[in-house]
Amino acid sequence: MFDFSTPVDRHGTWCTQWDYVADRFGSADLLPFTISDMDFPTAPCILDALSQRIAHGVFGYSRWKHDDFLCAIDHWLSTRFNAPVDTAAVVYGPSVIYMVSEMIRQWSAPGDAVLIHTPAYDAFYKVIEGNARQVLAAPLRKTGNDWQCDMRQLEWQMARPECKIMLLCSPHNPTGKVWTHDELATLAQLCERHNVRVISDEIHMDMVWQGHHHIPWSVVGERYALFTSGSKSFNIPALTGAWGVISDAQDRDNYLAVLKGRDGLSSPAVLAVSAHISAYRDGAPWLDALRHYLENNLRYVADQLNQAFPALNWHPPQATYLAWIDLRALGVDDEQLQRVLIEQQKVAIMPGYTYGDEGRGFVRLNVGCPRTKLEKGLQGLINAIRVCLA
Ligand SMILES: Cc1ncc(COP(=O)(O)O)c(C=O)c1O
């Protein structure tokens, strides 16, 4: 019903993934598997909604606080996660990281610390340090193919007086970990005990694979800010736009006052609002077909990699279309691998150290693309590993 196999040429569309690959990798003619967006056109229902809105032709100031938007969100959270939302608590923002940044400022002072699970999405380090807060790392440990959080070590970190916020990534980028109900409940208890506020970044919530279930923080937590967007799931990040739930009325008012007053952002990107309404009302069949395609892509990566290097015994992640590949069993040198990938194989794949020191020995391969592109990129990775091992 939906075509995810036919490649669409994105060159010349000012897209970060292809047109600006040289900024990070130093070379322009690379096949990119980098920043987390996908090479697919968005859902047909979204394209229709956008076409209609564009045909109207008038793009004056807009609003997000209306039933069309709020009820579409409630519908999505209710039907996908069985977690209806108090629509009065919903907030909007231009991006998830903008919203995270603002709540860090609201809930902590310069010099305070924000706890994150490492390795971590690189923007987390930047948003914490850019706000003059310290990063407190709670390392995730790999046991078999799962990632575990050492709750005793985490509590020890949380007990530090400077620790004011836990910035949770749920599901977790880059490991793909899906937090279980028990883990979330324990985290909630510990945060409560140590008076640590929670910002839960749930932007990857829709990309959770068979056998795993995303549980929104709103199910377990009390005083929190949960931020997300349809941008990853429906591949619309360049429209900009995110939303969330801030549970406490005063916190919410403070956030909205800053959005409107200090930052002059009260009028949302109307195309983003329109896209979200359409996605959350009518986008489920497309998303489920896409998820099926992506899961097969991840399985393909596992089959090919393990065939080439049985010692890897790599398993697809629990969530996200980002294959977090542990190459440590092969003892490949990270810097040499990057050199060979870029110079010889002409492929751009994120080195694991982008996500902190615990990412050394890993690469992050974005599989949000047609299979034919993935085949080329994966072959490039396999070839590059062979060169490094020779
Ligand atoms: C965990 C996580 N949060 C946030 C973002 C970016 O979201 P936004 O562009 O809305 O700030 C990403 C993008 O890769 C992400 O992986």
UniProtKB/TrEMBL annotation:
What is the name of the protein in this document?
cysteine-S-conjugate beta-lyase
Keywords, ordered alphabetically? Lyase, Pyridoxal phosphate
Q: Does the keyword DNA repair apply?
A: no
Cofactor needs: pyridoxal 5'-phosphate
State the top-level EC class: lyase
What residues does the Aminotransferase class I/classII large domain cover?
Answer: 29-379
The UniProt entry's sequence similarity note says: Belongs to the class-II pyridoxal-phosphate-dependent aminotransferase family. MalY/PatB cystathionine beta-lyase subfamily.
E.C. number, please?
A: 4.4.1.13
Highest rank taxon of the organism = Bacteria
Q: What's one Pfam family the UniProt record gives for this protein?
A: Aminotran_1_2
Q: Name one GO molecular function term.
A: pyridoxal phosphate binding
Organism, by scientific name, is Atlantibacter hermannii NBRC 105704
